[in-house]
């Protein structure tokens, strides 16, 4: 009967919820442990100048390889870390580690780190950044803080305060995942952004859909009009890249077409290889 069926479905549903609940409880405990024992690592993904194809910076992305469950994606463990109040331990560690790695990369390649809305209240981000710069000798202009629309809107006043301090110090401030959060645009002029990272959902269809390309073109124009460096995230195909080169004012690109996020031991070599390749191409064009 429908009633029996309903009951069975509900039992399965609740059994699944139970699994999810226990899974999440376990992950929370294990995440605390991983943070305390150096169980997290960083991957780095390059951002390239669209015209020279040189690596200008790399984004640091947190990784958690669980000893029994394997890799847990940041889309799972970052929200858990926020929930149990340990996100700022991750942020502090990421900033220190990213600055250290960056100080060892060839040339003037910079590094970008992601911060969470919670960090604005939980820690003194300016002090954390100063410490990381002092310890590594990295110039402030080589560090960039990525923040989402949601974070700056949730913590508007304190975000303006903290990010203005960092910007005055010369640290870059990037608005991440642009276009996916609130569509109130007023914060774009209220906050000291230097870069706009257009979310990959604006890139996905541009090679097939003229309207998608026109939307991206106009979002990029908005960023340029505000004197922001404009980046496209999630570039996966040559066709997408070509459409951007031909139609938009996008200055930097990031995505699987160029490189997946790589473990830190591989990133210096990738930078050298990509930047040597970019140079060789430039020389060929000249010669
Ligand atoms: P995000 O900051 O927007 O980082 C870019 C994400 O897009 C990364 O996912 C990256 O692997 C992925 N991506 C890059 N290129 C492509 C592409 O061509 N196609 C597709 N489909 N995806 C691409 P990841 O590493 O899984 O990180 C997801 C999100 O987790 C990040 O989004 C960021 O919001 C958050 N996150 C990662 N590390 C940290 C961290 O240390 N702190 C904080 N607060 N959040 C972090
Ligand atoms: Mg980011
Ligand atoms: Mg992003
Ligand atoms: Mg994103």
TrEMBL record:
What are the residue boundaries of the EAL domain, all occurrences included?
A: 24-275
What is the protein named? EAL domain-containing protein
Q: Which residues of the full protein are shown?
A: 480 to 766 of 766
């Amino acid at each position: 009967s429908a009633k029996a069926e309903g009951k069975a479905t509900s039992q399965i549903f609740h059994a699944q919820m139970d699994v999810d609940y226990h899974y999440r409880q376990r992950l929370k405990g294990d995440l605390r442990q991983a943070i305390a024992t150096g169980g997290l690592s960083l991957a780095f993904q390059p951002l390239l100048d669209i015209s020279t194809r040189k690596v200008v910076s790399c984004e640091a992305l947190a990784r958690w390889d669980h000893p029994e469950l394997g890799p847990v994606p940041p889309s799972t463990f970052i929200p858990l870390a926020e929930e149990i109040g340990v996100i700022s331990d991750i942020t502090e560690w990421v900033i220190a580690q990213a600055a250290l790695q960056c100080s060892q990369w060839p040339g003037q390649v910079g590094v970008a780190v992601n911060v969470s809305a919670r960090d604005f209240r939980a820690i003194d981000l300016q002090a954390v950044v100063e410490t990381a710069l002092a310890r590594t000798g990295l110039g402030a202009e080589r560090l960039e803080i990525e923040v989402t629309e949601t974070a700056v809107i949730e913590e508007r006043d304190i975000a303006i305060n903290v990010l203005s301090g960092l910007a005055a110090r010369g640290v870059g401030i990037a608005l991440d995942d642009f276009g996916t959060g609130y569509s109130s645009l007023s914060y774009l002029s209220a906050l000291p952004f230097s870069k706009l990272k257009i979310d990959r959902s604006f890139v996905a269809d541009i090679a097939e859909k003229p309207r998608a390309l026109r939307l991206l073109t106009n979002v990029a124009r908005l960023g340029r009009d505000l004197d922001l460096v404009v980046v496209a995230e999630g570039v996966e195909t040559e066709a997408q890249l070509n459409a951007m080169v031909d139609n938009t004012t996008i200055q930097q690109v990031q995505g699987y077409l160029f490189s997946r996020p790589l473990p830190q031991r591989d990133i210096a070599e990738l930078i050298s290889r990509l930047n040597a390749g970019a140079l060789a191409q430039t020389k060929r064009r000249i010669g």
